[in-house]
Amino acid sequence: MRKLVPAIAVVCSFLLLGSASLAAPRGTASSRQSQTKGHHHRASKRKASRRSSRSRQTKARKARQIAVTRRVASFTFSPSSPTAGQAVTFQSTGSCKPKPCTYAWDDDGSDGPGGTNSPLGNGKTLVFTFTSAGTKSVRLTVTDGRGRTATVEHDVIVTPVSSATPPPPPPAKVAPSNTSLPAITGTAQVGKTLTASSGTWSGDTPITVSYQWSDGTTGQTDTLPSGDQGQNITVTITASNDGGTSTAKSNSVGPVAAAPAPPPAKVPPSNTSLPAITGTAQVGSTLMASSGTWSGDTPMSFGYRWSDGTTGQADTLSSGDQGRSVSVVVTASNDGGSAAARSNPVGPVAAASSPPPTSSTFPLRVSASGRYLVTASGNPFLLVGDSPWSVIGNLSEGSAAQYYADRESHGFDAGLTALLCDDYTGCNANGTTFDGVAPFTSGSGPGSYDLSTPNMAYFQRAHDDVAQAEADGVEVLLDPIETGGWLTTLENNGVAKDKAYGAFVGNLFKDLPNVIWISGNDFQTFTNAGDNADALAVAQGIESTDPGALQTSELGFCPNGGNTCIGSTSLDDSSWSSVLGLNGAYTYSPTYADVLKGYDASPTLPVFMEEANYEQEQNNATDGGSLQNLRLQEWWTMTSGATGQLYGCHCTWATIANGFSNSSIDTPGVTELGYETSLLKSLDWQDLVPDQNHALVTAGFGTFASTGSIDANNYVSAAATPDGKLALAYLPKGGTI
To answer: Which SS3 state, helix, strand or coil, does residue 272 take?
Structure first.
């Protein structure tokens, strides 16, 4: 009966015939076909001979089909050649009817785990582990639901574990072998450091390397001592891995030169011209000190101490100074040391003069509602400004007076200008005035100016220009150091000097009530922490010496240019909120969108349009400053909650110069802005609230767009007073609302 079948999965079967046989699967297609043919043959004969007893014969045939059937019992196992201790899976592959059926497995060989007829387990599937080697005769007994049984058995040859083929030995380790020599870099000079590369190596990884220099140093670097002078230097690399070690020596460098001569001694400061004091020696006036000129190593810093105990570059004279002469000691310091020089005295200090008459307009303040500006007497102030960025740098005091008088006559009450002006805003590239006066005594341009060395001749002229504007009733939005052309200056000087410069200009101009400080200008990097800190330091310095002054800022235009974004407002940079009193909007897109963004911002501040399209200009990705576009942006602004706006023209910043004619700046855009100004000043414009929810204009208000062309925009901006007595709506394309 025993037969070895060396298959991966061995199938064993036992054929049972007759009524006592085990119910088996329904059979293969061939067995079913055979039974069907037999049935048809017998039926044919019966039909021919006994048609009248068909019913009885059919019942008898069905009984015989139940009694005489074929059934198969079989099983498989895997693996076909297990080793001792390896699990073997046995699977019954036959079927059984009627159910329920049971499956019993045993080993009927005397070498089985329990001797002859040792049971292995039960179930249609059995997993069994033979712990000893030998031939195991495994038998499956299947019992159907009527108690009938069938058996099948097969030999399973279990091999000893020791008979398994041992794994092949690992390959021999390959020791390192140099494929390119080590190399030495650096200068062969006493005091210098040489650095070795390990070269390249073949062989098994990982490979470790060590360094041995010819002068006895170990490690990858060798700082050459005086004892190496005149010698050639090599380095030997030892490479190691599990296969062994190998060495390689570099080419030599040298001979080692003597150490370089020591640097020359630092030259301390030495005064070559005394510090000087400018200003009026009178109680209440501010004196300014220049540092004088000094020889010695740079960079050099300066400290100031006045004879009345004040420190810093400025000294505002108090009543205690009256009758005394005042001098200042400047201390210059560099890496070589320090030295001091005293100015000639000024004075004696005179008594304070009678205070000037109080202006009914200046200084401007924020209204109680936070929505608009008011004058010193509390009246609403409609800000109507020009943008003469280059007035201080390009015009003499006489031409500046001519400019401000002209603007006042055309309804302007404000002007934006740069305290420091280079070619970014229409002045000389080195930041000097039209007649060559530099703003600082140290440095030659925005890239090198030292903010701690202001030239009082320059700043006094700027002060006089702003005073002239006050006399003409013009508020000056003064940019202390605009970031379009002077950001490098801020970066190079650092936060401490930036803040000190802010304190200096704040103190210098605090006697003029018509100043609003506006920081920035095309400040594209305000999100850079360092650049932002530099610009903010100036504003904080101004606040430290003139805390009552209003401040605002002009951030950047759209990163992709023109009207590709809504624009910016001062409050987009929240780090400035503590110093801001006015929120500026800067956009080349439809102005109503950016102004409303500023109007809705927190904290509530008056919002104004600080820059949009300029007359006679067309920047990239904009619609330009045509008369129609100027009207659009001006009326959209003033029906969106603004306290005013700044007009701009190429003619008043890029081309204006001494000897200009008024006709060159009195453009059609100026005339048309005057129409709007006249109408608004006849109304309670300050009480208008933007119609953002379309409660006023309920239909026909067009399409709101925060970006894109203003030429094609048809949005109707509108505003009304809370009491419903006044309403304005601007229809850019006409139509019906």
So the answer is: strand
598 is written with which tokens?
């500023």
CA distance 31 to 69: 10
Distance from C-alpha of 520 to C-alpha of 482, rounded to nearest angstrom: 5
Specify the DSSP element, H or E, that contains 471. Answer: helix 456-471
Quick check: 554 pLDDT over 90?
Answer: yes
pTM score over 0.85: no
Count the helix, strand and coil residues of the chain and give each as a percent rounded to the nearest 5.
25, 30, 50
Residue 32: count of CB within 10 angstroms of its CB: 11
CA distance 88 to 656: 101
Q: How far is CA 132 from CA 69, 156, 158, in A?
A: 41, 12, 7
CA 145 to chain centre: 77
Element (H, E) at 270: strand 270-273
**What pLDDT score does 116 carry?**
57
Question: Phi and psi at residue 308, in whole multiples of 5°?
Answer: -95, 10
Distance CA 173, CA 176 (A): 10
Say which residues have a Cβ less than 8 Å from residue 722's Cβ, sequence separation at least 6: 687, 689
Tell me: cis bond preceding 167? Omega within 30 of 0 counts: no
Q: How many CA atoms lie within 13 A of 24 on its CB side?
A: 26
Measure the CA–CA gap between 697 and 615, rounded to whole angstroms: 31
Strand (E) or helix (H) holding 551: strand 550-554
Query: 304 with 238: CB under 8 angstroms?
Result: no
Tell me the C-alpha distance between 206 and 190, whole Å: 36
Token pair belonging to 48: 């021919």
Phi, psi at residue 492, to the nearest 5°? -70, -35
Strands (E), 25-146: 70-78, 87-92, 102-107, 118-122, 125-129, 134-143
Residue appearing with tokens 């001494």: 658
Among 578, 576, 558, 554, which residue's Cα sits nearest to residue 567? 558
The amino acid occupying position 729 is A
Rounded to whole angstroms, the Cα distance separating 406 from 385 reads: 13
Whether the Cβ atoms of residue 314 and residue 505 lie closer than 8 Å to each other: no
153: nearest Cα among 288, 331, 3, 277: 3
Determine whether 174 is exposed, middle or buried from the number of CB atoms within 10 Å of its CB (0-12, 13-18, 19+). Answer: middle
Q: Which of 103, 108, 142, 95 has its CA nearest to residue 122?
A: 103
Give the pLDDT of residue 263: 84
The two structure tokens encoding residue 659? 């000897």
Query: 485 — phi, psi (to 5°)?
Result: -115, -15
Cα(379)–Cα(366) distance, rounded to whole angstroms? 11
| Burial class of 733 by CB neighbour count within 10 A (0 to 12, 13 to 18, 19+) | exposed
Cβ-in-10-Å burial (0-12, 13-18, 19+) of 215 comes to: middle
Q: What is the pLDDT of residue 42?
A: 42
Task: Name the helix (H) or strand (E) containing 598.
Answer: helix 591-599
Residue 158 is predicted with a pLDDT of 87
| Model confidence band, residue 172 (pLDDT cutoffs 50, 70, 90) | confident
* Amino acid identity for residue 46 in this structure: R
Give the contacts of 133 (CB within 8 A, at least 6 positions apart).
Answer: 83, 84, 158, 159, 160
> β-strands 118-122, 208-213: how paired?
unpaired
The gap between the terminal CA atoms of the chain, to the nearest Å, is: 107
Q: What's the confidence (pLDDT) of residue 533?
A: 97
pLDDT category at 1 given cuts 50, 70, 90 is: very low
pLDDT digits 0-9 by tens, 195-226: 999 999 999 999 999 999 999 999 999 999 99
Contact assessment for residue 157 and residue 138, using Cβ atoms and an 8 Å cutoff: no
Please give the pLDDT value at position 476: 98
Query: Could you check whether the bond before residue 160 is cis, i.e. omega within 30 degrees of 0?
Result: no
146-155 pLDDT, tens digit each: 888 888 888 8
Distance of CA 335 to the CA centre of its chain: 39
Average pLDDT on 509-530 reads: 96
